[in-house]
């Protein structure tokens, strides 16, 4: 069977210790929470780490709190808890839904929100064994110099496959980070960069502590839709969150955030439809808009052209699903 | 007092609780003192000559005990004795990405893996042929130099009757082009083997195999050791489905490394290695012409198939025959011709997967029948009834059909699904489809020419009241050990728990050929019944003597011997066994089974391949929903009725029916085993940018190879039809493979009923459905 290479595991008891350990061990150290992404990746040789710093015993990362008009979710909160938490279900139902669609029950019982947001990018040319990648001759992200998705490309275009990132971006989430220089806040949308080799733009030694989401107003609704071949287990092949802000039956603003395309979610502002009645025509138009503005690449393992068509359908259905439109 | 018969009772498997609670020991659970671990170095090239292998650096790594290369085991072998084209480790050439080149035994898997990286192999890369078209177009690039016909591994042409004449005379000729993609078994347990040489030089190999007897023979051949100095043991197997029905590199490797090191050596495949070992369903490209009268009678079937075989022959000779030979029932053909060609390609070798060689042509013919029914305005079930070949009949290719419950199967699913009220009348987007099929209960001939029995069973009675059954049979989860216990317990009057089955250990058990071709129930079942009847006769004799009655008046049932006419007169079965042992000495008997040779098949060349003592019959109805906006097909429900002759264990038969439907539905709509250049797009029109290298698997993990989850599984309804066949034990025929076949065309026919388009190239992917719907709208 596949074996982990020997490594050192540290289990800090608080956040300060965790940050100190990261600073001490530098780039060879990796954070591990539920381990559902890091461990398979290490076993398959897709990433290397000499030191793992486990966040499992760090109490500051746990908990879901309603405070000051926002929901604060500790980064170490399990996805299974987010999917069933009463406050999340009441205020951020699309997040609960997205969390419930991650992988399988066992993985949701282990995987955390922070882990899902910091999920490594995925690509059919990377998520393979050592033998497979050696046979291929490597790629930008894996001991090679060539991108097989975009021939001649300089950036790795492996896809962000987080189910929770698009929906949290649509909700306008911000992140609490703690690093050697202290704490800082970052809009979730700014967490992600364009290069799939290091798409999570945390500073060296920084830890994602919590996610803060402003409670949506009465006219704001968010829908998340995911398509994968199977109803469980799979990473998204199409993934999109749609936020509509509606007042007196008219759109006042909105956001579309699509995942599973590139290393960072594609975020599109829907302000130009402000003033429009929210009807089936709008749903169709937004579907076409997504089709025009999103170009799935042959990075994740499914036909790219179909994913583009499917994205349009999912956007249209997301708008219909929001319940403000008689279908 | 009366006792329920064990045969036909609703019991489970006596050993299932062990598997469910984690107590069961699979090969990888076995740990021997001083055991080493082996890893196999595999080729990164799809086709290359091995110029040089240098193992020096690997041998010097601390913790490494031995390295083995192909030159040390050069003898070619193959599961079919006529096509030995494999080597335990490739000595001269590699033929697919993943072909085994060398192996290391070390103190741990980690050290063995590191040592493999230190083996220096120099390759001369050759052109890779990854499609049958390329392999046929380039015979000068020979994947196997010794092969006489370019890259064709086997070609079979057989004709029966006047096909062209009947096609001319037909009122309707349906012509279709069908593509069946590759799929693999996806068993839970990866292959695993342990080799050990004891002080006397006896080699023992424990292996997760479904053919311990053939493994025994091939180990002897490749290692040059007589079979009596080899012991093969098959521990509990966690699924196989045909994927463990021939020897694999790891079995030779652990044996050789155990010889070299003097220590036990284990090798456990990674999941990727399971996908590389493959031997799964062949991709088929099929052209069919079928002629019908206006009443729907089949006048002619003309079939042409190209089989994509992968890098080695495996069972390919048989697969090529099966692709045509198994189509001759349940429908009568007035004339029939098939032309099948199997081609080598630089990919993992294809072989037998549940329904070996006949699932693909069954898909084609059953869709052809559906098209004809539509064109002729005949109900698809009625069209099938009209063509039923009948019981005690002969197929056009001269196979003798015994019992057949095919019509009863059709009626069972017709009624259960509400076919008459619903077919063709459901709202658009929802549909029903039907298909039927047949399968063999074992093959009439052993893989190697022999007059020896196909199966032997030995039974011993114990003075404790227990029974021991020794059999070479391979229980791979299908329940063959339960089947033996059922037959023995039923005959000897004990409960299932009183029977110990000791199976698949070549030192302890008589030979059985293995778990393939759905042969064990019929063959080992008959052997077991013979032995059990022999012993039961002696026990009843001894009891009759004591009671002063005749043997015929003694009944053995419910842990008792009792008077048939007076249940008040009885004794515990243990007492009866003791009486018998006193009378006859130690109680043991053997039984064996040999297939009938008269009136089973035709005498033409190839006429024996596919012939079986008895045939099972199946009918499926599938209900699907089609999302016309996304092209997604959901298999909502499947009704399957299967004629297994006699269900010795109805719960297990239902399990086989449900498992078959699950597996067939999965490969219809989701699963695909192929290489990246061609494996992602099966339509051949557009192609995603592939990698520079050819022959890389598109899906070599259980994440990328998408088998249905529980949530993706249709609602399954299993119906048992019992038409006992005189050749089966208690009339039993097979149930493990037949119930897979027709679920695939039933789903495709249901899609047509739902939205009026045909998907003749599998798998049924949403983009294909969308394209077909668009084309249908255009025209």
Q: If you had to describe this structure to a student in words, what would you say it looks like?
A:
The complex is a heterodimer of chains A (327) and B (779). By secondary structure, chain A is α+β, with helices and mostly antiparallel strands. Chain A has helices at 15-25, 38-43, 79-84, 86-91, 93-100, 105-110, 113-117, 130-136, 164-170, 280-293, 304-321; strands spanning 8-10, 29-32, 51-54, 64-67, 70-74, 174-179, 182-187, 207-214, 220-227, 238-247, 250-259, 266-269. In chain A, the strands form three sheets. Chain A has a five-stranded antiparallel β-sheet with strand order 4-5-8-6-7. In chain A, α10 runs antiparallel to α11. Chain B has 779 residues and is of the alpha+beta class. Chain B folds into three domains: 16-22 and 453-593, Aldehyde Oxidoreductase, domain 4 (2-Layer Sandwich), CATH 3.30.365.10; 31-128 and 187-240 and 244-277, Aldehyde oxidase/xanthine dehydrogenase, a/b hammerhead (Aldehyde Oxidoreductase, domain 3), CATH 3.90.1170; 358-439 and 613-778, 2-Layer Sandwich (Aldehyde Oxidoreductase, domain 4), CATH 3.30.365.10. Chain B contains 21 helices and 28 strands. The model of chain B is unreliable at 678-691 (pLDDT under 50). The chains are: A alpha+beta (327), B alpha+beta (779). The interface between A and B is large, with 38 and 46 residues.
Count of DSSP H/I helices of chain B: 21
Determine and state the CATH class of the largest domain in chain B: Alpha Beta
Beginning-to-end CA distance, first to last residue of chain A: 51 Å
Please name the CATH topology of the largest domain in chain A: Uridine Diphospho-n-acetylenolpyruvylglucosamine Reductase, domain 3
CATH architectural grouping of the largest domain in chain B? 2-Layer Sandwich
Q: State the helicity of chain B in percent bands.
A: 25-40%
What's the rounded overall pLDDT mean of chain B? Answer: 96
The CATH class of the largest domain in chain A turns out to be: Alpha Beta
Strand content of chain A: 15-25%
Query: Biggest sheet of chain B: strands, sense, closure?
Result: 7 strands, mixed
Tally the structural domains of chain A. 3
> What structural category arises from helix and sheet content of chain B?
alpha+beta
């Amino acid at each position: 069977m596949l074996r982990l290479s020997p490594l050192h595991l540290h289990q800090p008891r608080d956040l300060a210790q965790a940050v100190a350990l990261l600073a001490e061990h530098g780039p060879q150290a990796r954070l591990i929470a539920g381990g559902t992404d890091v461990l398979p990746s290490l076993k398959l040789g897709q990433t290397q780490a000499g030191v793992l710093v486990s966040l499992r015993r760090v109490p500051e990362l746990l908990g879901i709190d309603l405070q000051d008009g926002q929901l604060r979710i500790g980064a170490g909160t399990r996805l299974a808890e987010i999917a069933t938490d009463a406050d999340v279900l009441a205020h951020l139902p699309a997040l609960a839904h997205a969390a419930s669609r991650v992988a399988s029950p066992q993985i949701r019982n282990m995987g955390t929100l922070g882990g899902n947001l910091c999920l490594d990018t995925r690509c059919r040319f990377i998520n393979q064994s050592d033998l497979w990648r050696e046979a291929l001759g490597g790629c930008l992200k894996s001991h090679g110099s060539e991108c097989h998705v975009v021939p001649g490309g300089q950036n790795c275009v492996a896809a962000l496959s987080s189910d929770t990132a698009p929906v949290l971006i649509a909700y306008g989430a911000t992140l609490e980070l703690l690093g050697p220089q202290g704490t800082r806040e970052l809009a979730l949308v700014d967490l992600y960069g364009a290069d799939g080799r290091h798409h999570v733009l945390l500073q060296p030694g920084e830890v994602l502590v919590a996610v803060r989401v402003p409670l949506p107003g009465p006219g704001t609704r968010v829908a998340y839709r995911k398509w994968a071949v199977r109803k469980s287990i799979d990473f998204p092949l199409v993934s999109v969150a749609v936020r509509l802000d509606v007042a007196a039956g008219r759109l006042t603003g909105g956001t579309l955030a699509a995942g599973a395309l590139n290393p960072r979610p594609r975020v599109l502002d829907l302000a130009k439809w402000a003033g429009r009645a929210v009807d089936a025509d709008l749903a169709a138009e937004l579907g076409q808009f997504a089709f025009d503005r999103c170009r799935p690449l042959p990075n994740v393992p499914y036909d790219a052209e179909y994913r583009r068509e499917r994205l349009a359908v999912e956007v249209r259905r997301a708008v219909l699903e929001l319940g403000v439109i008689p279908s | 007092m009366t006792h329920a018969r064990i045969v036909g009772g609703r019991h489970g498997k006596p050993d299932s609780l062990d598997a469910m609670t984690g107590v069961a020991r699979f090969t990888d659970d076995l740990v021997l003192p001083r055991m080493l671990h082996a890893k196999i170095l595999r080729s990164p090239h799809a086709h290359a000559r091995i110029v040089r292998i240098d193992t020096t650096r690997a041998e010097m790594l601390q913790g490494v005990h031995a390295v083995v290369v192909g030159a040390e085991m050069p003898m070619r072998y193959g599961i079919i004795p006529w096509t030995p084209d494999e080597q335990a480790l490739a000595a001269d050439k590699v033929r697919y990405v993943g072909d085994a080149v060398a192996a290391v035994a070390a103190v741990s898997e980690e050290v063995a893996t590191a040592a493999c990286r230190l083996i220096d192999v120099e390759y001369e890369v050759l052109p890779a042929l990854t499609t049958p078209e390329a392999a046929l177009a380039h015979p000068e690039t020979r994947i196997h130099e010794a092969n006489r016909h370019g890259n064709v591994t086997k070609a079979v042409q057989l004709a029966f009757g006047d096909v062209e004449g009947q096609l001319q005379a037909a009122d309707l000729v349906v012509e279709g082009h069908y593509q069946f993609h590759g799929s693999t078994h996806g068993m839970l347990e990866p292959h695993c083997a342990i080799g050990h040489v004891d002080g006397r030089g006896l080699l023992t190999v424990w292996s997760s195999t479904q053919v311990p007897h053939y493994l025994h023979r091939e180990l002897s051949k490749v290692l040059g050791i007589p079979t009596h100095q080899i012991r093969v043991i098959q521990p509990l197997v966690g699924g196989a489905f045909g994927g463990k029905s021939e020897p694999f590199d790891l079995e030779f490797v652990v044996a050789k490394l155990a010889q070299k090191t003097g220590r036990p050596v284990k090798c456990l495949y990674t999941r990727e290695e399971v996908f590389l070992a493959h031997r799964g369903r062949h991709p088929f490209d099929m052209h069919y012409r079928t002629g019908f009268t206006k009443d729907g009678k089949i006048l002619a079937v003309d079939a042409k198939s190209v089989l994509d075989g992968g890098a080695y022959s495996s069972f390919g000779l048989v697969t090529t025959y099966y692709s045509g030979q198994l189509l001759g029932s349940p429908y009568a053909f007035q004339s029939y011709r098939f032309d099948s060609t199997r081609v080598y390609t630089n990919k993992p070798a294809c072989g037998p997967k549940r329904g070996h060689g006949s699932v693909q042509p069954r898909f084609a013919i059953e869709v052809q029948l559906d098209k004809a029914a539509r064109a002729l305005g005949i109900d698809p079930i009625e069209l099938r009834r009209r063509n039923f070949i009948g019981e005690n009949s002969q197929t056009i290719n001269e196979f003798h059909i015994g019992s057949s419950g095919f019509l009863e199967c059709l009626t069972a699913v017709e009624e259960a699904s509400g076919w008459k009220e619903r077919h063709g009348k459901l709202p658009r987007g929802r549909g029903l489809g039907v298909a039927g099929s047949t399968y063999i209960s074992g093959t009439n001939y052993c893989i190697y020419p022999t007059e020896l029995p196909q199966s032997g069973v030995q039974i011993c009675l114990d003075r404790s009241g227990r029974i021991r059954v020794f059999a070479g049979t391979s229980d791979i989860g299908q329940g063959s050990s339960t089947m033996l216990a059922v037959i023995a317990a039923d005959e000897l009057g004990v409960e299932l728990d009183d029977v110990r089955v000791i199976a698949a250990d070549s030192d302890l058990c008589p030979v059985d050929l293995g778990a393939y071709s759905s042969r064990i129930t019929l063959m080992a079942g008959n052997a077991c019944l013979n032995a059990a009847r022999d012993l039961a006769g002696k026990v009843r004799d001894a009891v009759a003597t004591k009671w002063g009655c005749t043997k015929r008046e003694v009944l053995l049932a419910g842990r008792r011997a009792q008077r048939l006419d007076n249940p008040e007169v009885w004794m515990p079965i243990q007492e009866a066994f003791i009486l018998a042992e006193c009378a006859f000495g130690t109680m043991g008997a053997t039984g064996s089974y040999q297939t009938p040779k008269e009136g089973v098949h035709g005498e033409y060349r190839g006429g024996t391949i596919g012939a079986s003592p008895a045939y099972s019959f199946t009918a499926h109805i599938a209900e699907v929903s089609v999302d016309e906006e996304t092209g997604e097909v959901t298999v909502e429900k499947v009704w399957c009725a299967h004629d297994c002759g006699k269900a010795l264990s109805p719960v297990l038969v239902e399990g086989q029916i449900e498992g078959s439907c699950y597996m067939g539905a999965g490969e219809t709509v989701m699963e695909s085993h192929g290489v990246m250049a061609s494996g992602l797009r099966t339509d051949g029109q557009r192609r995603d940018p592939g990698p520079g290298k050819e022959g890389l698997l598109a899906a070599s993990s259980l994440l990328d190879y998408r088998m249905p989850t529980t949530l993706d599984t249709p609602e399954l309804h299993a119906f048992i039809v019992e038409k006992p066949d005189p050749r089966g034990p208690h009339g039993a025929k097979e149930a493990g493979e037949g119930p897979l076949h027709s679920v695939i065309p039933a789903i495709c026919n249901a899609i047509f009923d739902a939205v009026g388009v045909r998907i003749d190239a599998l798998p049924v992917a949403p983009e294909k459905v969308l394209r077909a719907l668009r084309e249908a709208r255009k025209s």
